[in-house]
Amino acid sequence: MSLTVALGADHGGLLLKDELSPWLQQRYNVVDLGTRTLDPYDDYPDYAEAVARAVTSGEAQRGIIICGSGVGACIAANKVVGVRACLCHDTYSAHQGVEHDDMNVLCLGARVVGLELAKELATTFLNAGFSGEERHQRRLNKVLSIERRSLQGGRGE
Ligand code: RB5
């Protein structure tokens, strides 16, 4: 049980998180970053940022964020430099996104997938590793270059 997973959800994802969390805890180290209470006025960016920062700080190797659709959480998490978050509701993307694109945060929509599929998506994501193949590393380097240039506010290297 070496992998540490940061887990978070807003009110739209809370019920799925609470079902998924004990199951994940039997297999991985889980850092639950909330929410813990059903507050329809809470905001997904707060939980997405917490999970994203846990991953970029090294507190966790991977993150899983759940909101109603998974879309808002994905958009928010990708604003944190170093995060490669994707919304995956099929198992092919859940492992290929890691193998080819080094995805480090999985986003799920609790209003879209049920518990059993969420377990399969999480397992598939967490068990996958970046292939490191030359073409994938080259493409990842280009993605990282876009990130660097955006931070610099220009187009130069
Ligand atoms: C909350 O109602 C909902 O908008 C949120 O959970 C998420 O689906 C946003 O993308």
Describe the structure.
This protein is an alpha/beta fold and 157 residues long. It has a single domain, classed as Sugar-phosphate isomerase, RpiB/LacA/LacB (Ribose 5-phosphate Isomerase B, Chain: A), CATH 3.40.1400. The protein contains 6 helices and 5 strands, in the order E-H-E-H-E-H-E-H-E-H-H. The protein has a 5-stranded parallel beta sheet, with helices on both faces. Helix 2 (44-57) packs across helix 3 and helix 4 runs parallel beside helix 5 (115-127). The model has no long low-confidence stretch (mean pLDDT 96). D-ribose is lined by residues 10, 12, 44, 67-69, 71-72. D-ribose binds next to helix 3.
Strand-residue proportion: 15-25%
- Largest sheet, strands/sense/barrel: 5 strands, parallel
**How many discrete structural domains?**
1
Helix content: 40-55%
Number of helices: 6
Q: Any idea of the CATH class?
A: Alpha Beta
Order of helices and strands: EHEHEHEHEHH
Radius of gyration: 15 Å
Please name the CATH architecture.
3-Layer(aba) Sandwich
Major sheet: arrangement of strands: 2-1-3-5-4
Terminal-residue CA separation: 40 Å
Shape: globular
Structural class: alpha/beta
Low-confidence stretches: none
Which distinct ligands sit in these coordinates?
Answer: D-ribose
How many E-type strands? 5
